[in-house]
Q: What sequence folds into this?
């Protein structure tokens, strides 16, 4: 029933430079922002071809972002292989910049490139979909918010017009109809628009139009000090507050070349695992609730509430916001809390271990979740999905194991994976991950190092950049950061794993009935705020 | 099936009396139930609108529905459509991309209605303020009757905030 397959990918990133050379692609320089990643600089003309080489080599597209340093625009792609990450960079003039698209080789680059197009004015010449993405009607097509000269205030009109004119891909045929849904949805959920094209009950096509909660996070970060950046990062996506803050702080720490004290690193990992567990508990309950199985919802929200109360009592915040700070952590764990935290972890382990079989063996639930919302392993790999979504479809990427950062470099990380790729397996992976995370928390508590909670942050005295990569509960979470000599932010780009999971929702929904969309959506649970920025 | 019944029986009843200044909150609760009975026909229907939130407020909004807080015991429940709502609970700084949707949701909510801005962002723009992308506070876009501060407000703060709004404010 639970077929598992261990996938070990060979050292891929190390051989990549040689493969580029074989394809006659010149590297203009090889360097890196601080951190373990290599940075390869290419000519703009080779940008698309380099992606093709990377795709052939089996590398995974992780992110693309821009950076305006007048008179130049920097475009950077992050690729991942089995043995780590590497960066591709190209430099364009900021007047009429254009670049071959990487989307033909990496479907996952589609919307990130369109985000870049709207925010910086880069034209991707052979992009299969030239439509706008993040820009609705709040600013003009000729104004690019992330250009250096663009003032954050912009020139907004008193009342922004509704975005009625987004050109959804049309569909035609006898009996085909469209269902427009959103941006305001029926549940307690973030806003976005879904356009269903259906025949009878069956979804033929689904297209999401997001961007409704765009609040200018990338622009807001400019000029902030690191404490202000950490606060902002903690609000990129409230359910992933710990990991986004950790990624941003890790990027800053890499840029400044400082080491975080071991006790602070262990506490960060405890926070991140607590966040993982809280969200997985909530998701398992909510997925079951979306098919009318209230028992699971009641039980899981009960466990989640108790868990959050402990977070508040021991660490001071129910969602652990602002507990991670640049250089370390804001709160300590007093020693008389160790035993209660151990007991709590053991109790929850018991509860989840006994509850999961009750859910997974319940025929009515199996009937609704099994073979529903299937993402095949092939599609999962093509789209480069992450976290529980990937693991339910046989992808095992997990930074904690594959590119371990402290304190995970000293821990054994088990990564569950299943072949079926349906909602049932997404529930099961979450259950597995709760138990694994509880084990990690126990180990971290047992081996909690003594010492400082924060390292002192020096002024950089020169411009510097760094990358932060942290395995959040949704998967690989990235932060790119560039600081000026005074330690103020020149550029912050957070990449939530939801960038990779939203396109998967559009692939796994067609073929299901319209009423199963909510459960499909919940099983993927992409963050709206996390990608709208 | 037996395992499910067994678990339900063993879990028992979890709903808690509201802590912290018990008497006053209990009185507040009773008073609000009277208000809800008199002005909203016995139940208060809430439509939530995320107008730009980071989704932290939504997590705690879900929590007031769990067994411990069980907001429905006060006759308060969340509904799917603004047309069924007495109160709009709005989160986030209002993003400019959500401005039109929020205005329409407000217009679709029948009078008399109340509007509560939840969280520091809803109260004053919070971490995001006013910019090319954000209108800031909810009150900059639609009339607001009350704010419940916090980042995010805890379920208890949300519950107490809602009860206070009802006691103090009467929809016109």
A:
């Amino acid at each position: 029933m639970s077929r598992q397959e261990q996938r070990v990918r060979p050292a891929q990133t190390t051989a990549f430079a040689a493969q580029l050379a074989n394809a006659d692609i010149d590297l203009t320089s090889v360097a890196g922002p601080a951190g373990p990643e290599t940075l390869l600089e290419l000519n703009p003309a080779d940008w698309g071809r380099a992606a093709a080489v990377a795709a052939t080599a089996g590398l995974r597209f992780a992110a693309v972002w821009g950076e305006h340093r007048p008179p130049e625009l920097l475009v950077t792609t992050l690729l991942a292989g089995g043995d780590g990450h590497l960066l591709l960079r190209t430099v364009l003039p900021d007047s009429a910049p254009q670049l071959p698209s990487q989307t033909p080789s990496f479907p996952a680059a589609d919307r990130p490139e369109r985000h870049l197009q709207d925010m910086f004015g880069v034209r991707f010449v052979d992009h299969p979909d030239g439509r706008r993405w993040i820009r609705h009607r709040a600013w003009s097509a000729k104004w690019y918010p992330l250009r250096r000269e663009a003032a954050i205030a912009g020139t907004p009109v008193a009342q922004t017009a509704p975005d009625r004119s987004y050109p959804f891909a049309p569909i035609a045929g006898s009996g085909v109809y469209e269902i427009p849904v959103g941006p305001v949805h029926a549940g307690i959920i973030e806003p976005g628009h879904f356009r269903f094209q259906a025949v009878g009950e069956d979804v033929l096509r689904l297209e999401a139009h997001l961007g409704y909660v765009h609040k200018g996070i990338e622009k807001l970060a400019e000029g902030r000090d690191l404490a202000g950046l950490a606060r902002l990062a903690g609000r990129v996506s409230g359910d992933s507050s710990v990991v986004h803050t950790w990624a941003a702080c890790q990027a800053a720490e890499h840029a400044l070349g400082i080491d975080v004290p071991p006790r602070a690193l262990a506490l960060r990992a405890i926070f991140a695992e607590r966040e993982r567990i809280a969200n997985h508990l909530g998701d398992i309950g909510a997925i079951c609730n979306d098919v009318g199985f209230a028992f699971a919802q009641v039980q899981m929200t009960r466990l989640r509430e108790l868990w959050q109360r402990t977070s508040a009592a021991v660490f001071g915040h129910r969602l652990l916001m602002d507990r991670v700070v640049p250089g370390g952590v804001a709160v300590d764990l007093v020693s008389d809390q160790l035993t209660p935290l151990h007991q709590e972890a053991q109790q929850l382990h018991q509860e989840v271990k006994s509850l999961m079989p009750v859910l997974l063996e319940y025929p009515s639930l199996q009937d609704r979740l099994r073979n529903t919302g299937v993402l095949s392993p092939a599609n999962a790999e093509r789209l480069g999905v992450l976290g529980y979504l990937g693991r339910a479809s046989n992808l095992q990427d997990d930074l904690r194991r594959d590119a371990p950062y402290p304190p995970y470099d000293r821990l054994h990380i088990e990564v569950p994976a299943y072949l079926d790729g349906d909602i049932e397996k997404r529930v099961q992976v979450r259950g597995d991950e709760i138990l694994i995370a509880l084990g990690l928390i126990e180990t971290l508590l047992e081996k909690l190092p003594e010492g400082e909670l924060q390292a002192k942050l020096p002024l950089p005295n020169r411009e510097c950049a760094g990358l932060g990569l942290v395995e959040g509960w949704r998967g690989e979470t990235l932060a790119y950061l560039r600081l000026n000599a005074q330690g103020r932010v020149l550029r912050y780009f957070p990449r939530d794993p939801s960038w990779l999971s939203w396109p998967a929702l559009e692939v796994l929904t067609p073929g299901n009935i319209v009423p199963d969309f909510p459960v499909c959506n919940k099983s993927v649970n992409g963050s709206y705020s996390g990608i709208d920025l | 099936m037996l395992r499910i019944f067994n678990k339900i029986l063993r879990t028992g009843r979890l709903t808690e009396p509201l802590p912290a200044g018990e008497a006053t909150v209990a009185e507040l609760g009773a008073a609000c139930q009277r208000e809800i009975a008199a002005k909203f026909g016995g139940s208060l229907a809430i439509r939530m609108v995320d107008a730009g939130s980071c989704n932290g407020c939504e997590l705690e909004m879900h929590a007031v529905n769990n067994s411990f807080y069980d907001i429905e015991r006060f006759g308060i429940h969340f509904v799917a459509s603004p047309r069924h709502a007495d109160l709009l609970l709005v989160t986030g700084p209002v993003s400019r991309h959500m401005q039109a949707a929020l205005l329409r949701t407000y217009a679709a909510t029948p009078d008399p209605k109340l509007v509560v801005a939840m969280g520091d962002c809803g109260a004053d723009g919070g971490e995001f303020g006013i910019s090319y992308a954000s209108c800031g506070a909810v009150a900059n876009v639609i009339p607001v009757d009350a704010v419940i501060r916090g980042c995010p407000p805890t379920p208890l703060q949300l519950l107490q905030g809602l009860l206070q709004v009802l006691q103090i404010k009467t929809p016109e």
User: Anything to note?
Assistant: The two ends of chain A are 40 Å apart (CA to CA). Chain A touches chain B through 62 residues (CB under 8 Å). Residues 1-10 of chain A have pLDDT under 50 and may be disordered.
